[in-house]
Design goal:
7 helices, rod-shaped, mainly alpha, Helix Hairpins
Length: about 200
């Protein structure tokens, strides 16, 4: 160890020695008075009022932006629902056509059945007053025959009707919400712009 190292003093020790300590600076009232300014309370109030008005405008714009995000989310949900709605409606139309064709086929087949033709001829000849009852029973038989032959399709049609009604209700609700949020967002933006003009920020 060298002789110099014995007399070496750490920097941390120097820092606490009085001769190396930072001098205390006292600000005199004269100097302080040069930089301290009295602010008119009216100016402070005006600044606070301005900030409050800006906050009001920002709040309206923030709410409008939130509503925009909401109706965009609704649109994301609504679009596939509308596609599904259209798909169900198309299937309903096709199946309805099938059932109408089946109903017509049952009617023609029953009307041309030998036993039905014979019975009808007897009624026309002997008791024409029973024709209304015969026609009523004939129509009921056509429907029953169609239901037997098309049971699966009729069940499918009922399921499609229920699905269509549910989709119709859902899309109507979402469409209404979408329109309301969009209209409200537009109104809030307009109000914010109007406030900017009224408060002199425009």
């Amino acid at each position: 160890m060298s002789k110099n190292s014995k007399s070496a003093v750490a920097l941390s020790e120097l820092a606490v020695m009085p001769q190396f300590a930072a001098p205390v600076v006292e600000i005199t009232p004269e100097v302080l008075s040069m930089i301290v300014m009295d602010i008119d309370p009216a100016l402070i109030e005006a600044a606070e009022l301005k900030e409050a008005r800006l906050d009001e405008i920002r709040a309206k714009k923030d709410e409008a932006k939130r509503l925009i995000a909401l109706y965009h989310e609704i649109a994301k949900t609504l679009n596939p629902l509308c596609d599904e709605y259209d798909s169900v409606e198309e299937e309903r139309k096709l199946l309805k056509g099938v059932l109408e064709d089946a109903l017509l086929a049952s009617r023609i087949t029953l009307a041309n059945h030998p036993k039905v033709l014979e019975n009808k001829a007897q009624i026309v000849k002997a008791a024409p007053n029973l024709m209304a009852e015969f026609n009523e029973k004939f129509n009921a038989a056509v429907i029953k025959q169609t239901q037997i032959a098309q049971a699966d399709n009729i069940a499918r049609m009922k399921a499609l009707d229920a699905s269509f009604a549910e989709l119709d209700k859902k899309t109507a609700q979402l469409s209404k919400q979408y329109d309301e949020y969009k209209a409200l967002s537009t109104r809030l933006f307009a109000e914010a712009d109007q406030l900017k003009v009224e408060y002199g920020f425009a």
